[in-house]
Amino acid sequence: THVSGTIGGVGGNGTGVAGVNWQVTIISAKFLGPNGGSTSNAIRALDYLTDLKKNRHVNLVASSNSWGGGGYDPLLEAAINRSGDAGMLFVAAAGNGSSNNDTTANYPSNYQCTNGGTRCWDCVIAVAAIDSSGNKASFSNWGATTVDLGAPGVDVWSTLPTNGYGSYNGTSMATPHVTGVAALYKATFGDASSATVAAWIISSATTGVITGNPGGTPDLLLFKSTL
User: Which is nearest to 221 in space by CA: 142, 148, 146?
Assistant: First the structure.
């Protein structure tokens, strides 16, 4: 519910929070519960969305993945590739372990799209969290080659169940900002391919060193939409 408000909370009505999109359709593919979930059900959820996109011609632009856990799984990687082949982006939280994803992989954000075993355009966008000053959040993972950009993930105000609102922290909160921008770009430029949408999102971010990034190396992008 919280991430949905970030993607598509109605704006201009003086109520609650405005999402990145003010008019959007969101489809839930729930596989997590109070006690977590399984990778096999994550695959089933993603394949369900891929089927809607590929075979039922539902205009799905991206899946928003504010979840993580478990090690590398070739079956999940294959499911992500199927969604990418169908023309859907896989936007994923980089993780909240204050660690470098280049050296300690975080899944699913560390997956990469391949074609016949060779990396092609990457349908996965890995998202770190930044604060309101543009600094990397202290809890956020990072990575020069495995994290694509950062988005607001500290004190993010959004919708809660039973008509409530609340503030959360996490790369889970950063991820739907990027998913929302993907949908907004696609709504504006309907003929753009998924590869074009992903490239635009990443290239339009502000490049630079993020304050507080260990080592001070310019290995993250500050998210800054210019649309």
Answer: 148
- 85: which 2 tokens? 């082949």
The model's pTM is 0.90
| CA-based torsion, 112, 115, 118, 122: positive or negative | negative
DSSP E strand boundaries for 26-155: 62-65, 89-93, 114-115, 118-119, 124-130, 149-152
State residue 122's pLDDT score: 85
**Is residue 214 very low, low, confident or very high in pLDDT (cuts 50, 70, 90)?**
very low
Residue pointed to by tokens 């290995």: 219
Helices (H), ranges, the chain: 2-8, 39-54, 74-85, 171-188, 194-203
* Percent of the chain clearing pLDDT 90 (strictly above): 80
Alpha-carbon distance of 168 to 47, in angstroms, equals 29
What number of helices (H) and strands (E) belong to the chain?
5, 10
Question: Residue 4 is encoded by which pair of tokens?
Answer: 């949905």
